[in-house]
Structure to design on (256 residues):
């Protein structure tokens, strides 16, 4: 990244304090790393690429505040990091576009979650993660179940060298103390959510019918009991709406 204004906005959004533990995902050649290391007491660099991980290890060999972990952030378990333990930590990262959604979900589903994430994503992915009711999709729900999301800034291709073919966006995820929906298990909640978006252009009743392979009339009453309109589109539901719908669904199908 060659646009230092964007680097500044990322670091500023993270509100890094001297005592913070920072996990940087995908540091690459260190465009962000220098600013992070200058501000934080402890930094863990997660790099998947063999050569880049080796270069970073050599570069920070004499800095005891920095550790390089050659790992895949999609399967990373922060419980394996002694620097973190049960202490708060923040995540900053320019995420690889092909793995961005799995990385974010893995971090948000950790037993010991970060307090916030500042991540750069492909613009379309960022737009869905931060979408409001009316434009929400399954990724919106999966993200906002665990965090409040907002856009920090946009990064056009010219901000990078070489410039990519896509536009990027930096978002901030403030992780909730508890999920936005009270559920029996995360798997049962996503069973409902996936069905709810099985046919997103249909009505909510119609989409649930497609997802569960039943008739729309089987869900109209349940949706109304949740205080919703069976004819509204799945994209219009807020997280509170999903919570109400989940409660009614579990009452009607307790073994689901």
């Amino acid at each position: 990244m060659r646009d230092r204004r964007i680097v500044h906005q990322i670091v500023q959004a993270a509100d890094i304090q001297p005592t913070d533990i920072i996990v940087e995902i995908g540091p690459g050649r260190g465009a962000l790393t220098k600013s992070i290391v200058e501000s934080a007491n402890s930094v863990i660099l997660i790099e998947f690429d063999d050569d880049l991980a080796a270069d970073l290890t050599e570069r920070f060999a004499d800095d005891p505040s920095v550790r390089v972990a050659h790992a895949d952030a999609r399967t990373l378990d922060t419980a394996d990091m002694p620097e973190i333990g049960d202490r708060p930590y923040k995540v900053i990262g320019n995420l690889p576009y092909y793995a961005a959604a799995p990385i974010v979900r893995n971090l948000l589903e950790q037993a010991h979650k970060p307090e916030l994430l500042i991540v750069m994503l492909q613009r379309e992915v960022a737009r869905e993660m931060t979408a409001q009711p009316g434009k929400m999709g399954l990724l919106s729900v999966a993200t906002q179940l665990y965090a409040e999301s907002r856009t920090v800034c946009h990064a056009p291709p010219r901000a990078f060298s070489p410039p990519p073919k896509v536009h990027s966006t930096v978002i901030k995820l403030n992780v909730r103390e508890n999920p936005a929906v009270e559920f029996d298990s995360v798997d049962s909640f996503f069973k409902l959510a996936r069905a709810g978006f099985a046919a997103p252009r249909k009505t909510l009743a119609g989409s649930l019918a497609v997802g569960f392979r039943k008739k729309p009339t089987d869900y109209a009453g349940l949706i109304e009991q949740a205080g919703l309109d069976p004819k509204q589109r799945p994209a219009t539901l807020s997280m509170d709406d999903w919570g109400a719908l989940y409660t009614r669904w579990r009452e009607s199908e307790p073994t689901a």
Summary: DSSP finds ten helices and seven strands in the chain. The mean pLDDT is 94. The two ends are 47 Å apart (CA to CA). The chain has two domains: 4-175, 186-252.
